[in-house]
Amino acid sequence: MRAPRPTFAGRTAPGGALGPIPSLRPYPTLPVPQQFTFNVGPAAVYPAVRQYLQDAYDEGWLSAPHRGERFTSLVRQAVTDLKLKLNIPQDYTVLFTGSATECWEILAQGLTPRRSFHLYNGEFGKKWFDYARALRPGTTDVQFGLEEVPDMGALPFVGEDTDLVCLTQNETSTATQIRETHILQLYNRLGGALLAVDATSSLAGLNLKFIKADVWFGSVQKCFGLPAGLGVLILSPRAVARAKEVNDRAHYNGLPAALSNMLNHQTNYTPNVLGIYLLSRVMADREPIKAVAQHLADRAQKLYDFFEQATPLQPLIANHDARSTTVIGLQGEPALIEEIKRKALEAGLTLGSGYGPLKNTSIRIANFPAVSDAAMEALVQFFVKEYVAA
Ligand SMILES: *Cc1c(COP(=O)(O)O)cnc(C)c1O
């Protein structure tokens, strides 16, 4: 049972000058929390977040000034641990933003004086392209099929006037992933362009090779196991130099101001201090990414095999080289999908819905670090009980 929340009913303002303050409605009782969620974002948070939140309050972080020494040490520590645990090169710069969506806009404004090129196969890649094109009308794209491994050698982006080549490393909407070797192929034929990678649903879940791209970004409500409201933008020295050349001073979230503030471990506006605090706690407690990524890869393999062999669902992506390891996509008839989601919910398991055009014919399972093995075991047991013939 939750302790009843205090209300301000009947209280009078000090001195009584305002007269009695009308009583507030008591908070509604929250529904009993689901046992496990497999949503791909906002996704399951680490159980330790409960303690971190309490500590943040107790330690006074919720009102900590963002120019003070205490906050700047926190940022320094968060960035140090982030680089250490995720294998981010020391000479790369980490910036904090509000979301991955904001990163799309920052990159169009701050690294794209002329146009960008976008390679994608799903809704997030398309949204990025749409935002970028709205700001830079010459922006171009190539879409590829869900089962396809794009041929990086055959892409038409090479043109003197392409500033930024953009790809979505893990397309959350289609449960597909672009592997390291293909990113490398692309990186090797960039010419003067920079390579920017949306890794929102793989950053902190995969052992990404940061040296093979100039810009990486994501937000914390996916593989970091944290509540939403913070984005992480990672820039190579080449990207930092370009941002200074482009010199976008017309926007509050422009890169030059963010970069110069970050030299002092500050931000140019009051940041999400709680989010940064939680990030620093999670990173300090985390295993190194190599171990985390291996665990997720092994678990993904087992899950795909289980669903393929033992349930009426099939992997959404048949091609082993194209499917995601952090977002497990499964497909079935709409009626079956609906029934599975409903029965799972009754059993305390919230499954992720399909996204966009795949909404009715697929489900997605977050294979994120904060989803415990016990949760996965409960999921498998649910399917064994409900769908595997005895
Ligand atoms: C979730 C997601 C986004 C959007 O993240 P926000 O933090 O909501 O802006 C962008 N790209 C990908 C690949 C995502 O999975």
UniProtKB/TrEMBL annotation:
UniProt cofactor(s): pyridoxal 5'-phosphate
Catalysed transformations (reactions): 4-(phosphooxy)-L-threonine + 2-oxoglutarate = (R)-3-hydroxy-2-oxo-4-phosphooxybutanoate + L-glutamate; O-phospho-L-serine + 2-oxoglutarate = 3-phosphooxypyruvate + L-glutamate
Record domain Aminotransferase class V: where: 42-326
Protein name according to UniProt: phosphoserine transaminase
EC identifiers of the protein: 2.6.1.52
Pfam families found in the cross-reference section: Aminotran_5 (PF00266)
Family in the record: Belongs to the class-V pyridoxal-phosphate-dependent aminotransferase family. SerC subfamily.
Single GO term (MF): alanine-glyoxylate transaminase activity
Domain of life where this protein originates: Bacteria
Keywords: Amino-acid biosynthesis, Aminotransferase, Cytoplasm, Pyridoxal phosphate, Pyridoxine biosynthesis, Serine biosynthesis, Transferase
UniProt record, GO biological process: glycine biosynthetic process, by transamination of glyoxylate; L-serine biosynthetic process; pyridoxine biosynthetic process
Keyword tRNA processing listed: no
Family matches, as SUPFAM superfamilies: PLP-dependent transferases (SSF53383)
InterPro entries tied to this protein: Aminotrans_V_dom (IPR000192), Pser_aminoTfrase (IPR022278), PyrdxlP-dep_Trfase (IPR015424), PyrdxlP-dep_Trfase_major (IPR015421), PyrdxlP-dep_Trfase_small (IPR015422)
Pathway assignment: Amino-acid biosynthesis; L-serine biosynthesis; L-serine from 3-phospho-D-glycerate: step 2/3
Region annotation Disordered: where it falls in the sequence: 1-20
